[in-house]
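Hey L., structure's done. Input below.
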Amino acid sequence: MGFGYLLIGYLITFVIHMTLQSLGLGGLALLVGYGTMLLGLVQLNRFQSAFAYAKWILPPLLVIALYDCCAFLSEQMLLELPFFNAEVASVMGWISFALVILFHFALLYAICVLAQEVALPVIRIKAMRNMVLVILYAVIYLLAELPLLGESVRSYLLYPIIFLQLAWILCNLLLFLNCAKDICPEGEEDPQPKRYRWNLLNRIGDAYERNRQRAVDRVTRETEERMARKRAEREKKKITHGKKKR
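Output:
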């Protein structure tokens, strides 16, 4: 449905990128990660139009990632080009920060809408929780960048910044994994697992299918129980309203 591409792209962008950044290949990781997430969002947008907001934020981020790649090549080739300097890099960094925060809001909002549509309140609550983590991270990060604060205060803020960044990255990865397991397009509720030549892969696929089926059964059971409670409440209101008329 697209959550698989989204999960892989997010992993490349916000986890593998941290490792490759030290090697000077952070821009390349961002290009691959943003491009993979864009493929996933194009698919998701076919099923829920709310994903369009997140989808259209990715092309500017791809341009910034391309700038990072070109800046790295320019530095390695000892080229002193006017648009690859510290001032431009700082501006690009702040634009990237704002777009990443906006992207997360748009993406998590779309997941909330989709979860509400398919009656998965747990996923909706998790998406809203992740929104709060992103807000806290952005606020503390901006506070740490204020020139009025001393270096001692900034050093104390560094710990919650790192913790919140790791927290919302991990929570988003788990959220996308839950979405990939629990949400599927209409008509694909009971797909047949693909059989492989190697039994190990077949066992892994069978275990995944059992977990997926348990998740589907749980969601179906919770939905039926919720609908039964609503029907009981409506019947109770009708009885109470009839007694008042008498």
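Confidence is low (pLDDT under 50) at residues 187-191. The CA atoms of residues 47 and 186 lie 9 Å apart.

-- N.
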